[in-house]
Amino acid sequence: MMTWKRPFTRLAGYASVTMTAAIMISACAAPGASAPGSVAPTTAPSQTTASPSAAASACGTDSFTMVTEDVEAGNGGVTEAIDQVNAEFMAKYPNVTIKRIKTTFEDLQTKQPLEVTAPNPPDVFQIVVPSGPFANFGNAGLILNLDDYAAQYGWVDRSGPLLHNSRFDSSGQVGTGPLYALPQLEEIVGVYYNKEKLAALKLQVPGTWDEFLASLDAAKGAGEIPIMVGTSGQGHLYAMVYNRYVTSADINGWTEHTAPDVSFDSAGWLEAARVFQKWGTGGYLEPDFNAVAYDDAWKRFAAGEGLYLPVGIWLHGGIADAGGDKIGFFLPPASKEVPALQVQGGGGQPWAISAASKHPDCGAAYLEFMTSQRGGEILIEHSAHPGFKMETVPTIPAGLDRDLVEALNTVNGSYTLSTFEGTATATLGPVIRALRQELLANRITPEEFVKGVQAEYEKG
Amino acid sequence: MTGSAGSAEIALGRPLRAMGRRFRPSRSGGHLVGYLYLLPAMVLYAGFVIYPLIQGVWISLFEWDGFSVATWVGLENYRSILTDSALRAGFGRAVVLIVFYSIIPIALGLLITAILSSRPMRGASIYRTILFVPQVLPIIVIGIVWRWMYNPDGPINAALTSIGLASLARGWLGDFTLALPAVGLVGSWVSIGFIMVLMLAGVQQISRDLYDAARVDGAGRVQEFFAVTLPGLRNQLVVAVMVTVITAFRAFGLIFTMTTGGPGTETTVPAWQVYTTTFRFFQVGLGTALGISLALVIFGIVSALRWLLERGER
Predict the structure, then answer these.
(1) Residue B280 and residue A296: Cβ atoms within 8 Å?
(2) Structure pTM?
(3) ipTM of the prediction greater than 0.85, yes or no
(4) φ, ψ at A311 (rounded to 5°)
(5) CA quadruple A29, A31, A37, A42: dihedral, nearest 10
């Protein structure tokens, strides 16, 4: 009944040959040859620095729609804060209508290169940095150099070291070169803890790494789950561990390829891998942690399961809503090996302005508004943490929100930020993720783990 | 689907052929008109199948991040596929999926067909509908539902615990040994409905006389199945094997929703590698080369299977 052979006459032969030839000719341009960065010097990066006009007239008087896109769709407090920023910005500039596209980190990561090279990209959008090709958007002339806006509005002073991941030079190196984006949030990895459980164990918030390790044994001995993690939380948990055994200088130097003599296959990372594996094999994590979804892990913690939840504070809004007063927050304490207080993270996904936007000045005014005193107040009202200095920090009622702000303020300026090791090469993140799962499940040794990571790193 | 298109061809075959005889065009240039009728379809096919395919082959010869200017690398991407053990391992997992997407559903589908067609059964249409339901659900919905089923706190573990088999309960999708079979079984669950509908349609075309003859010869139900039903379903089996093998190699939706290739790399199958290489690593040239290699492997295997399955017919 299935006849696959088809009669093939001369006519059809000619027709298909002609058609194929035509298609071949039209298909045979080098991919990307028509990307904006490569067509004409008028769109070269040096030309795309728009000259800022006065803030008051930044958005003109004609009515228009400004399209924005961000990855905060799933982050409770932050996504509401952005809606409120938009509402207040539109009230300030009545001729502007903001159309917001909400998405998630992983979705944006997948579709962003297509979106920004399309003829009609969003005007203002968060970029997924500092990984992969995103560091080359500026070099390809797809997003604006913001240096002049930064000077006009004072962004460098206001956001300080959190701008690190928003600078790229002509080779795509992160942390140096022009400013291409501006973060709204501070996103670091800290530890949420269950106050009742810690009190029941007759323990204080650990002040040193040894005390933290001892509290895990105490929790385990009392039949509690010491740490809730889930699958996707393992990267943040692991980052917390290696920051106790490897200095920030080495972590950043290795990740950003600026320290050729630093290898992942070295004593500090190996010791971190041993501690991490012991947690997986020794019953320090929730049962079946490799099968527990990220969202389930923090929701179960907020509902009262487990002593600690080491995660990024971008989940703060959700945890605060669900767990309330039962939950506290602290920064991972320093260790004997690395006495400096190191925190994993930096600025949140920073906002860039499309080189194709017809209203770049208005886009810059929007970035200025979201990082203004009022922009910061809106974030704090929604349990999100501003990635910029505020003139006056509003009084926050006692509770988890204040714990977070106080933890960050106590050490303000005295902690160093470490970048995520998985961003070192385009392919490293998923490879480390797989190796970490195998390490926790005792399918590879800590030695194999660090050697495997270094080998993948060296592939480039 | 393919099955119903096949049976439609059979049903319409005779009248169409009769029409063809009646309106046979004259020898001088009559064929041209026929190809004119085909033109719209050919244009669509060229625009949406041939053109992207050629463009894909072209892109696969470059190193490209998706937006910058690409660098010509010739066949280098294909060479990396042949030398990369991680990529080859993905094809091995696809072979495991064939057991679950193809062999198990075809065996069970035949069994169900034998039961449902052997005698008039009360509520047969209800069973048919229930078994076909997974075919009409979007694969994303199926993935999400089954991820919940397999959850450490999910219904499967709850059921095992309630009947005293708590020792078997585990985080299925986080288990390095069982994650791939767990995903595969969902594939079986989806495929069975399609196989069953295909086979039931086929059974109806087998002449009743053959069954009568078999009975007269003293065949029992089992012998009848092997002597009459199974040979009568040869064409349906060829379609079933080919469609399900292709589906196994292209498995992506369930991996995307249930495991994202984990734990470790235990469920990292070729289609998932095409996706991650292209859209996560932004090695668009390599990802495209991988996609084209996958298509070639599928084409090779399906051609070989077709040759094997149809050999006896000639």
Answers:
(1) no
(2) 0.81
(3) no
(4) -145, 175
(5) 10
